[in-house]
């Protein structure tokens, strides 16, 4: 079903330019032709992110505008001296209101180093209107008793319902508990503000930080959630309505062998006739790469058995360098995203990071060309 995969450099950061991280794109219909909008932010250290920027392409990803800052998504200084920033932003087009809804969560810094308060983390959003104007930063209010310490919407793919409501996946935890749970909330959205209408059940795993960074997809009448964890596994769950989730099961091949993953993300790559997953995993070639965060793989999902079809696996973006003997100079690619750019192509975007080379790195894109048109995308 995948006809070809082509690698492209969007922005050159290895040669001294900005290392743009968290590049996440969405397709925006317009009267003059659809374009792709992408958010991104500079990285200068371990989880040290600058202001969120935006860029667009109108020529199918061949060229991109110079990233421009989103005023509302910059750091602000708090009375206690901490800086309150924003990261893990994901933009998605909201058809009913003709807006782009960008969601992520807050993060704290002290002296330009990541601070780790165990409480006071929450989901945030910012709206770009039909005229291209970005609104203020807003907090998604949620008063669930199991989310009194933290509830985040980091890097999460969402599902927009036909009536305009938005299904959002969250990772959360109460005060005094180190491990987090995941679940989903159904939110109204009127083009300016979101409000939680209903919450679902909760999935748990009491290992280290628990379950993290869930993402959602809708395919063939069912909802799917893929989940990051810290027990050398990634997990998948399914729901008929999007709120009541079945117990999670580890990602495995269709022969039953579980994939070995290390606290890293997975992303859905949906088509009208199939569902794919983009992910990282342990392999003989990346044995010494931190969290095995390179290369990026893509494979088709067996949606009945909730597993990956081994024979369909392809490398979406390859490992560059020696991941066995000299892994220090292998770029990590752990925070990637996907977008259905056209009926013919889906893209995987990622920002490289080379911690041992001054946190430099290119912004990359994999063009996945399909043998058959993607019916989820309109002409």
Could you characterize what this model shows?
It is built from no helices and 29 strands. By secondary structure, the chain is mainly β. The strands form six sheets. Strands 7, 8, 9, 10, 11 and 12 form a six-stranded antiparallel sheet that branches. Strands 2, 3, 4, 5 and 6 form a five-stranded antiparallel sheet that branches. Strand 27 and strand 28 form a beta hairpin. The model has no long low-confidence stretch (mean pLDDT 96).
- Give the integer mean of the pLDDT values: 96
Order of helices and strands: EEEEEEEEEEEEEEEEEEEEEEEEEEEEE
Number of strands: 29
Main sheet makeup: 6 strands, antiparallel
Number of helices: 0
Fraction in beta strands: over 45%
Q: TL;DR of this structure?
A:
With 379 residues, the protein is mostly beta strands. It has strands at residues 2-11, 20-28, 35-45, 48-49, 53-57, 68-69, 76-77, 83-94, 99-110, 113-115, 123-128, 138-139, 150-152, 159-160, 166-173, 181-189, 194-199, 211-219, 222-229, 234-239, 249-250, 266-270, 275-279, 296-302, 307-308, 314-317, 336-340, 345-351, 363-370.
